[in-house]
Amino acid sequence: MENLKNKTIGSFVAEDFRTAAVFSKYKIDFCCKGNRTVTEVCEKQNIDADTLLENVYEVLKSGSSESIDFNSWPLDLLADYIEKTHHRYVEEKTNVLLPFLDKLCKVHGAHHPELFRINELFTGCAGELSQHMKKEELVLFPFIKRMVKTKESDGILSQPSFGTVLNPIAMMMDEHDNEGERFREIAALTDHYTPPADACTTYKVTFAMLKEFEEDLHKHIHLENNILFPKALILEKEFVEVE
Predict the structure, then answer these.
(1) Would the pTM count as exceeding 0.85?
(2) Which of 27, 31, 112, 146 suits 190 as a labelling partner, its CA being 20 to 30 A distant?
């Protein structure tokens, strides 16, 4: 178990996504800050590492797993999955959540002024994520797919305009951090998505959707930060000749 304390949170989740539920229970960020070891996280958050790892082990030893093994997927397939599943989810849900939040501000803002800040934060998130996903779809993901095809054909990888894949990846990870911070504030302002006593149906639905949105975003960022991006960096290093 001592060796596991030096393992990163992100690597646990990359190997078995069911462990994400354990880390979420302890309020441990497994996506944006998944590169921290168990020891680092436990020391910073005053968590008993042995207890945490026992909980993780309980999940890992349970035989039945409906978790998809994304870690074994080809990178081009994983990039397609992220785009078709998580990018589309963001687009669809933001179109619903934005008008809902505007309505809550108009109807309940006088008694719940925190709604204005929540609306501001989510509106910023929607705009930034839209730009972020376009950069992935038009620049980063096509290059990752090109690397996969080039390796399969034993070809020579031409150098992209951005120099190395590390550059767009570093930018994407920085933007992931920004959205992680934004949603931490939304979670705090909503008392972790708990509607107030006077909440109407729209209020309750909006908070439930925000919670679901954050959970999807965590998985979305995890797939990129902990699986797709590290493997893309490794793949790029396999190309000795770069034009």
Answers:
(1) no
(2) 31
